[in-house]
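Project outcomes to date are best conveyed with an example. Our students and postdoctoral researchers have been running inverse folding experiments weekly, and each run begins with a structure described purely in tokens. The record below, which covers 29 residues, was selected by the lab manager from last quarter's runs and is presented without edits.
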């Protein structure tokens, strides 16, 4: 699982594959 804290530079696509929650966080940041 990817963590927005560890990889804030990754595109939302990676977070989307992980969980919608992380995707929302990265988009907000």
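After processing, the design step wrote out the following sequence:
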């Amino acid at each position: 699982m990817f963590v927005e804290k560890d990889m804030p530079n990754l595109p939302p696509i990676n977070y989307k594959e992980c969980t919608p929650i992380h995707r929302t966080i990265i988009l907000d940041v």
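The chain has a mean pLDDT of 55. The CA atoms of residues 1 and 18 lie 6 Å apart. The training component of this project remains on track.
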